Amino acid sequence: MKFSMKMIVMATAAMFLTTGLAIAGPEKDPLKARVPADKRAAAKKNKSPYGKKSADATPEIIAEGKAIFEGKGTCVNCHGKEGNGQGPAGKVLNPGPRDFTNCKFHKKRKEGEMMWVIKNGSPGTGMVPLIPATISEEEGWKVIAYERSFCKK
Ligand code: HEC
User: By alpha-carbon position, which residue is closest to atom 22 of ligand 1?
Assistant: First the structure.
């Protein structure tokens, strides 16, 4: 009896570990809108001063965005140096951080919607509001230009 209880506890622990590892990390519906329906039209109209694509921004702006992403913005901890959502903290989050190398995401998402999430966060996820506490709105637009640049197509 004592032996089988121990077996059950061990089996449960093993199951928990396997499931935990299997569910941590992956993104949840990256193409699904994050801005609530009643605020989405306004968010989409909020245009970046640096354009829709990173190609519209100057190399200087993208370099500034990179410095913020990897520095004071702390984005790198979750979104990763390669922008693929595999940062050290991002790996253990569920849902996982956005993978900015996914060009389909960038096609689908307006820069104003990205700005909305950086300001308001995505409730129920590790993406907390970072403007104005961590970075300014101006810095946010620069980081968005850099995040766009992870899509190589
Ligand atoms: C603590 C971890 C963490 C940090 C730090 C973090 N993010 Fe995120 N981010 C996430 C997660 C998790 C998601 C996915 C949220 C979801 O699925 O709704 C996300 C999603 C996003 C999105 C996608 C929103 C959308 O429309 O789908 C953007 C843009 C974003 N983050 C920008 C940033 C920027 C810019 C920074 C740094 C200033 C940053 N994040 C820092 C965890 C983080």
Answer: 98
With respect to residue 153, please indicate whether it lies within any of the assigned structural domains. no
Which of 70, 74, 122 has most ligand 1 atoms within 8 Å of CB, for mutation?
Answer: 122
Instruction: Give me the pLDDT at residue 23, please.
Output: 43
| Global model pTM greater than 0.90 | no
CB 62 within 8 A of CB 132: no
Q: Is residue 94 part of a domain?
A: yes
Instruction: Spell out which residues line ligand 1, taking CB within 6 angstroms.
Output: 28, 34, 73-75, 77-79, 89, 93, 95, 97-98, 109, 113-114, 117-118, 122, 125-127, 130, 135, 143
pLDDT, tens digit (0-9, with 9 covering 90-100), for 38-68: 999 999 999 999 999 988 999 999 999 999 9
What domain range includes position 144?
Answer: 2-148
Cα separation of 22 and 18, whole Å? 6
Q: Report the atom number in ligand 1 closest to the C-alpha of 117.
A: 24
Query: H or E segment at 93?
Result: none
The span from the CA of 122 to the CA of 103, in Å, is 20
